[in-house]
Amino acid sequence: MLATRVIPCLDVAHGRVVKGVKFQGLTDQGDPVELAARYAEQGADELTFLDVKATVEDAGTMLEVVERTAEQIFIPLTVGGGVRSRDDVARLLAHGADKVGVNSAAIRDPELIDRIVADFGSQVLVLSLDVRREASMPSGFEVTTHGGSRGAGLDAIAWAREGVSRGVGELLVNSIDADGTKEGFDLELLRAVREAATTPVIASGGAGEPAHFAPAVEAGADAVLAASIFHSGQCTIGEVKAAMREAGVTVR
Amino acid sequence: MTAPRPTVALLDYGLGNVHSAAKALEAAGADVTLTADRATVMEADGLVVPGVGSMAACMAGIQAIRGGELIGRRLAGTRPVLGICVGMQVLFTAGEEGGVHTNALDEWPGTVRRLKADVLPHMGWAEVEAPEDSQLFAGIRDERFYFVHSYAATEWTIEPHPRMRQPRVTWAEHGERFLAAVENGPLSATQFHPEKSGEAGIRLLTNWVRGL
Q1: CATH number of A5-238
Q2: Residues of chain A contacting residue B17, judged by C-beta atoms under 8 Å apart
Q3: Measured by CB atoms within 10 angstroms of the end CB, which terminus of chain B is less buried, N or C?
Q4: Closest chain B residue by Cα to residue A120
Q5: A6 near A251, Cβ under 8 Å?
Q6: What CA–CA distance (Å, rounded) separates A67 from A135?
């Protein structure tokens, strides 16, 4: 049986880890490789880097960070943010990323998923969905772009299903409504995605304390991702895993 | 004076991501060269065959550098070879990925096929059942390893023979039982990624490198 993965997400801009609310007012939090190493020591099961600026000028800086990380830290590394093409994926993989997260670019051009899967396999592709509640959608959930500020006019559950049928390896489900609230994951959203998807599901958005993680797993998540709860020093990965174990979840 | 580090050739057949494998093998005590050069591959103390993505694509890459022949020659001289992930799958007779039949290297009998499981890919940290006398898993107990795959070999059909050294077979389960690792004379393989399995993975690679 698989252990539920606990994945710290590091927001990176210009080669540094940053922290901000909804990508505003970013403050420097240090070197991504050093932080990644600390998380790996604490028992992180994977690492995710999210390039929150993802400017063309910064692409080289991000590749260098990915390369240094992959050379020193022997757990899986996912990189997301600004991945627009098959060639972006090729470059990230060549520098040591194991998986890439694709978001807006796949909404604009769903066939991008097919091209990435054909060339590199399902296992490299994480389809990232920023989801908000929207009553006009059949499922009640809508995919958004631009950090959750714009609706894509796309039903989130239908989009998750399409991603799976096009061959994505995983779904990263980030609740825009729960994000930043620290009140827990959106369990209804996770149940709806779990029911629709045959791939692993990663829950994101809303974790405020160690007790919030186990309910996400009960709702169907195979992995849980969080950023600020770890960066703030509020709790360690070990503490989160201890709370999950206490609640009956299998962790490494 | 320290003993020279064993040399390992990491087979280069155009795969994107082999950084971690190279660095993890170095951390395990080897001098690593990423190469498809025939002399270098033959002379190295160990050969590692990496593999990600589809089995058909990996087989095409391996055949393009006549990698099957290199692996076969090394094995004929009892020179160690280690396959990782799809690098393990290609050692079986064939694969049935995406409904396409791919002939593989046929070092071991069996077909690699899609796992019967509710959620695929099988992605994450899983336990393995290694035999007591395993060399790869020596000193490694109660650890999980990182898997990412939808296909696997689910049968081991080589009959034990009194004149042959017994193969050591390690199992894991996802929906059904499948081969997580095989140690068969000079030829070893893991379905999981030791280079992505943290400290436990480095220890496993160290066990392999020490045997070179």
Answers
A1: 3.20.20.70
A2: 70, 93-94, 96-98
A3: N
A4: B53
A5: yes
A6: 43
Q: B123 at the A interface (CB within 8 A)?
A: yes
- Dump pLDDT digits (tens) for A123-155: 999 999 999 999 999 999 999 998 888 999 999
Across the interface, of A2, A98, A223, the residue whose CB is closest to B126 is: A2
Interface A:B, Cβ pairs < 8 A: 101
Are B120 and A199 an interchain contact pair (Cβ–Cβ within 8 Å)? Answer: yes
Going residue by residue through chain B, which has 212 residues, state the pLDDT in tens, using 9 for 90 and above.
567 899 999 999 987 678 889 999 999 999 999 999 999 999 999 999 999 888 999 999 999 999 999 999 999 999 999 999 999 999 999 999 878 899 999 999 999 999 999 999 999 999 999 999 999 999 999 999 999 999 999 999 998 888 888 899 999 999 999 999 999 999 999 999 999 999 999 999 999 999 99
Token pair for A250 = 């299998």
Which of B97, B107, B183, B195 is the catalytic position?
B195
Pull the structure tokens for residue A76: 């899986």
> What's this model's pTM, rounded to 2 decimal places?
0.95
> How many Å is the Cα radius of gyration of chain A?
17
Which of A2, A124, A166, A222 has the highest number of chain B CBs within 10 A, making it the mutation to test binding with B?
Answer: A2
Residue to test with chain B: of A1, A7, A71, A123, most B Cβ within 10 A:
A123
Pairwise CA distance, residues B135 & B57, whole Å? 31
- Domain segments of chain A as ranges: 5-238
Could you give phi then psi for residue A39, rounded to 5 degrees?
A: -65, -40
Q: Are A93 and A124 in contact (CB under 8 A)?
A: yes
Domains located in chain B, CATH noted: 7-210 (3.40.50.880)
Cα B71 from Cα B87, distance rounded (Å): 11
